[in-house]
Task: structure prediction
Amino acid sequence: MKVSTKNEYGELKSVILGRAEHACWPKGDIFFDRMLSLSTYKGRPRVGPIDPKVIQEATDDLLYFTDVLRDEGVEVYRPEITDWSRTVASVNHVTTGMHCYSARDLLLSVGDMIIECPTPFISRQHEHIAFQQIKQQAMQDGCRWIAAPVAPMESAECLVRGGRVQLTERYPIFDAANVLKFDDKLLYLVSSTGNLAGARWLQSVVGTEFEVVVWDNVYPFAHIDSTLLSLNHNTIMVNAQRVSGEQIPKFLRSHNKVWVHDCREIPFHRFPYASKWIGMNTLMLNPEAIFVDPAQVELIGQVRDAGFRVIEVQMRHARTLGGGFHCVTCDLERS
Result:
């Protein structure tokens, strides 16, 4: 299993694809609860195992996506099926798990390295157990697999302020999905799921091979990949509702831009864990081809007009479970 990836658009050779089996909404996760408290949606997800119909449909969609990836010549690795309803105790917390549906949330592949990131989600801090077989094989084949220090996530250090969850700067906290790879640069979004201390720690780990570019005061709530994505060496996709031209990082301003002004609402079960903008959470197979949900008719038209081949794959519960194509995959090798 070769690990070698420096961007988001090179020819995809191998990938980790997440699982929906036994997904739960967690109990005992302070950060999860405080993020949900900011939702403008009236309902709340029911703590515990997610509806079996949702799990089955999401599992079926991922199996179909697996077949499509393999038909395109991509080697697919899956985490182990794990019961996330089990209670886990640490020094500071007792919580259930969540899921390993969004494989990119916690695993950052960069160069020949995979980093287990210091997530603020207490319920997901033990999620790496589902990736043990992949981890052992990758390390045997020369991958540098590194685990970041676990963030304690005490109550006073993830406070709701100004309509968002504000993280402490006492220790590194970030999800892998706060980061996009641009060859020699790693664009790092500061938000409720990533602090400045995390960016500094990441820079110390990747050394001089990559420059960590901090992107702040843009989208304060969560991950980067429903705000900006890289389509090829000189094209980016940008959420026009969140980002202005002046806010685009300097090293990307000369790129061609696909401005996404809206995404179609797709159905969800009980509670929308992701907004409609999960529709632009796409994945590049190579510099010419992109995976998009068929529900996003206008977006499909835009990327086709920009010269890309569109591969349509349904993701019925992207909003329910909070993950589109980019979220549910962690690229291992791109050429």
